Amino acid sequence: MKLTPPPQHFSTPEKYWDDAREGDTCTSPEYEVTEARINAYAELTGDYTPVHIDEDYAKTTPFGTRVAHGLFGLSIADGLKTRSEYRFLPGMSLGWTWDFLLPIKINDRLHVRFTVTGLRASKSRPGWGIVILPSELVNQHGEVVQKGEHRLMIPRRPA
After folding, report:
1. Domain 17-155 adopts which CATH fold?
2. If residue 5 lies in a helix (H) or strand (E), which one and from where to where?
3. CB neighbourhood size of 139 (10 A)
4. H/E element holding 152?
5. How far is Cα 129 from Cα 131, in angstroms, rounded to an integer?
6. CA 102 to CA 97: how far, in whole Å?
7. Structure pTM?
């Protein structure tokens, strides 16, 4: 079954590696964390840890309420980048370094801010380049709840 994403209207095309410049920045659209989305993530991953799915249990924790899975936050950050005006042609993720700073709660509205801080041609794959994207996942209060760096291999513009 083919999944139909919600309509998106971009004013800019996807970028080749050659189109990126160090210092380029972007802020994504927002994403609302809902109880249904946390529950769906629990079902998808099989992670039914009570702090994520049981409000009575979560009230007894230092968080005082249910919180989203940490990796759900990273998944949100990655997804929001693909919904941003500054996005790349499909490439390959080379890895993440990621820190979990604050809990993500039901009804939080998140966005991701990212910056291009590194660019280099791939040594192992001609026609590809490496992009370094430090990113921050930010809630509606302006607090950075998670942050880290994504390394991507992106196609270069054909000659």
Report:
1. Thiol Ester Dehydrase; Chain A (3.10.129)
2. none
3. 19
4. strand 144-155
5. 7
6. 16
7. 0.93
